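Ticket #4471: structure output looks truncated?

Reporter: J.K.
Steps to reproduce: submitted the chain below (372 residues) through the standard prediction queue, then opened the result file.
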Amino acid sequence: MQEDFHYYATYCAAFLAGYDHYESLDICYSAQFVDMCSRTYLSGIKARTDAATTQLQLEMMDARTDIMGLQDITRIWASFHFLPKDLYATHKFRTRRYMNKYRLICGPNSDLLVKTVELARAGTLQAVGIAMHVLADTWAHANFAGTPSLVINNTTPDFYEIYTDEEGKEVEKKIHFRHNPSAADDLDGDNFTNSLYQGNEDSVMNLGHGRAGHLPDYSFIKYRYYPAWGDYHELIKDNPSDYMHAFAQMVYAMRYLRGEEESFEKDTYAWDVIEPYRERIDSILRKRQLNACADWKALGEELSGREIPDFDVNEYQVEYELVNKEQKREAFLGKFIKAALAQKGMVSSEIYKSGNLLGGFVKELLIKGRLS
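Returned output as attached by the reporter:
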């Protein structure tokens, strides 16, 4: 997902869940900041770099892919962007090494999602925002894993967009990929950018949904493709439906986090709360555009009657840098760092307890997980 959903749509969901304007801003800022909080950023403000929630392209170019490097990559991407659906999934006639990666495939409504939301209940608004980022990405990034793997994340080049024509019939058209990361996706020409095929199993080019480009991040698109983990059988991804479920589940989750719901249950959504706005939301989700920020922002400002400022990655940097060490814990970024460490530690620990070493070792995590 992108800023349009993680920032503006999350603001809308938070406000509908009952948070006030300023609380909603803290939540949506934290949700979007997950995509910005890299080691490079944390090093620049002299914060602990193991709280990183993402990796920049330049960082990925230098990333190691030995076992320690793979564990580091997996801790970040599986914890925040590709939450595993089933750490105990079974698949006949597969090696243990294969299964360790197969079990990291992302999907919604997992036991780990319940743990993620419950973890945020005892935390801050920053923790809520992080949890909402993770929740939303379980829908957008479903069927890909947050670890480099050719046998899991590769696809064939055969992607087809499914859309409704002027006569109301579902038709298809082939999607074309190119490998220029600096080129914007071209909706009119059906030209999209994806990662270059790499035959090395552990190449960072085979991390997450790189082989599908940004298709999982666009709410409007429905498409079919052929993933490696599914033995290259057809799979249809319906983003408008998935994003609607993500939004309704965020509202439900945040109602739980506010104490409006007694428990957080899987496959449960606040359809009743969003019903007055569902048609409007659906029209935003289905609008064919690369960026829906303006539409979500307009809805959010109509809901609250307040202005939603543009996201500024450096908004809280000065506050964090100026306060002393003891006060950093209570600064906005200090609270975000603490929540990020808690989420990363919880997910990595669950991966380890499942018998999978791709998330690292519990002893190491316990040592690093303390907020100094």
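Triage note (M.O.): checked the attachment and the full token line is present. Confidence is low (pLDDT under 50) at residues 367-372.
Status: closed, working as intended.
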